[in-house]
Amino acid sequence: MNSLVTSKDGTAISYLKLGQGPGVVILHGTMESARSHFELAEALSPNFTVYLPDRRGRGLSGTYGPGFTIQKEVEDVDALLAETRSHFVLGVSSGGLVALQAALDLKTIHKAVIFEPPLVINDSISTDWVERYDNEMANGKVASALVTGMLGAQMGPPTLQRMPKWLLVLFTKLWMAREGSSDGTDGPLPMKVLAPTMHYDFQLAIEMKDKLDIFKNIDIDVLLLGGSKSAPYLKTAVDALENVIPNASRVEFEGLNHGATGNRNRAGQPQRVAAELVSFLT
């Protein structure tokens, strides 16, 4: 059953709870929702009480609202930590950007785990494609916008980068037609529902571009995670954070990619990831 907490600006944030023990909040990434890490939460549940929020714009959570910045999401995390009395945070992908900023700002966080945040360092990846994505969404070309985002953010295996876009759009339309509908209470949200949220995650990446140095002031223990098969710009980000954060340790999952933390039907290996989390957080 979903519970709700109210953020500083009055926005409702929905979350799931399972397990027992110290609290861990998992912040999902782009094109994900609370249940995208349900299997990871299950693997952690014997040792921790796990909280799976739907970040703004997803499921039963409220909208982004005017003046959206990463600070709004940090305020959401702050409210959730206060409500649940949790002190551990895992941030995945764009959720990793939020977790990094929260670890810098919130003294209630005692340990943080960061998985492959899209932190742009010295133009390690171009964001020029975001304008095209926005235009395609504005014109109702949802499948095309999703492909633009996927290619621009270098999601999926490298072979996708070599396929013609029209073919990827066709596959995306077929996948969207198969997904059906869901409000996120019984499974991850479908792509067509999540598509508009990409704009805001891209906005976070642009906002945090070249802000690596601020994270030298994080004074808690941080575990950096990544996959050996992930995109080079994500590895660049993890490399740089390892060198900047004073109390950082790092684990790379051999043979896994950017989906490592997710459910198994999305090529995740939640048990493998959970083992590292349990070791670090205990």
UniProtKB/TrEMBL annotation:
<dbReference type="InterPro" id="IPR000073">
    <property type="entry name" value="AB_hydrolase_1"/>
</dbReference>
<dbReference type="InterPro" id="IPR050228">
    <property type="entry name" value="Carboxylesterase_BioH"/>
</dbReference>
<dbReference type="Pfam" id="PF12697">
    <property type="entry name" value="Abhydrolase_6"/>
</dbReference>
<dbReference type="InterPro" id="IPR029058">
    <property type="entry name" value="AB_hydrolase_fold"/>
</dbReference>
<feature type="domain" description="AB hydrolase-1">
    <location>
        <begin position="24"/>
        <end position="261"/>
    </location>
</feature>
<protein>
    <recommendedName>
        <fullName>AB hydrolase-1 domain-containing protein</fullName>
    </recommendedName>
</protein>
